[in-house]
Design brief:
The structure is a single chain. The protein is of the alpha/beta class and 265 residues long. It contains eleven helices and ten strands. The protein has two domains: 201 residues, 2-enoyl-CoA Hydratase, Chain A, domain 1, CATH 3.90.226.10; 51 residues. The chain has a six-stranded mixed beta sheet, with helices on both faces. A four-stranded mixed beta sheet has the order 4-6-8-9. α4 crosses α5, α5 crosses α6 and α9 runs antiparallel to α10.
């Protein structure tokens, strides 16, 4: 796994680019990789210099999911296999709780655990050569890392059932139309597109970004009703505006027609 820190010019900080780096095996998410990814995500999530975390894959795949050869043994382990599923759930679920955006830069094949990693991120950008699907059922498997729960919420129940039951792959434009990715770019523009997004985030108050992500993800992950979601939004917004230095700084900058100087405090 490679971690590169890319300096941002629009604001302070960096974008951390995490690259799954086993291209010959299509970047499988085996147990060791999941544990390593968890440690890397956690470190970057608590690094104040990092404004956005992006994850991509080396070679022709974002990730083709679990290591099928290792599954032959792991799925015979009545203790180990549930522990593996617990670890992958913990790794993916933690992404929604980190105080900054995590984005998937889908550079190629993203299936099984690969689509589950995409779904765990706050948003995804696809390259023109990306292909996204579930692909569990064609091999007698079923999703265990979140696809059965998160995909219907991302694209709607009917489309999720179609993708899961057929095992077919979405081309980038269709993934865009379904809302699975937020934009499609040329292959060589994928990382720059991630940087452009990070530049926009870096110009914002990190505290406001953190609070906005908390409210956005709370309703999505916890399934709260509208009244509960509205109450959380009121409470978080009131606390931020009344107690932070960034909220009045933004107003003062607007009034003075200058660029705001956010501190995240």
């Amino acid at each position: 796994m490679l971690v590169e820190r890319i300096d941002l010019t629009a604001g302070p900080g960096v974008m951390a680019l995490v690259t799954l780096n086993r291209p010959d095996e299509m970047n499988p998410l085996d147990w060791d990789t999941v544990k390593h990814l968890s440690a890397v995500f956690d470190e970057l999530g608590h690094d104040e210099a990092v404004r956005v975390v992006a994850v991509t894959g080396a070679g022709r795949a974002f990730s083709a999911g679990g290591d099928m050869k290792k599954y032959q043994q792991l799925q015979r382990d009545a203790q180990g296999f549930p522990e593996f599923l617990a670890d992958i759930h913990e790794t993916f679920s933690a992404v929604s709780q980190y105080p900054k955006p995590y984005i998937a830069l889908v550079n190629g094949i993203a299936v099984a655990g690969g689509i589950e990693l995409v779904l765990s991120c706050d948003l995804a950008i696809a390259s023109a050569s990306a292909r996204i699907g579930d692909a569990h059922l064609p091999f007698g498997q079923m999703g265990g890392g979140g696809v059965l729960t998160l995909l219907p919420r991302a694209v709607g129940p009917a489309r999720a059932r179609e993708l899961i039951f057929t095992g077919r792959m979405l081309k980038p434009q269709e993934a865009l139309e379904w809302g699975l990715v937020s934009q499609v770019v040329e292959d060589d523009d994928l990382v720059p597109a991630g940087v452009r997004f990070a530049e926009q985030v870096a110009a914002k108050s990190p505290l406001a970004v953190r609070n906005a992500k908390q409210v956005l993800n709370s309703g999505f992950w916890e399934g709260t009703g509208v009244p509960s979601g509205m109450r959380l939004e009121r409470e978080v917004t009131a606390r931020y505006c009344l107690t932070s230095s960034d909220a009045p700084e933004g107003l003062d900058a607007f009034s003075s027609k200058r660029t705001p100087r956010f501190t995240g405090r």
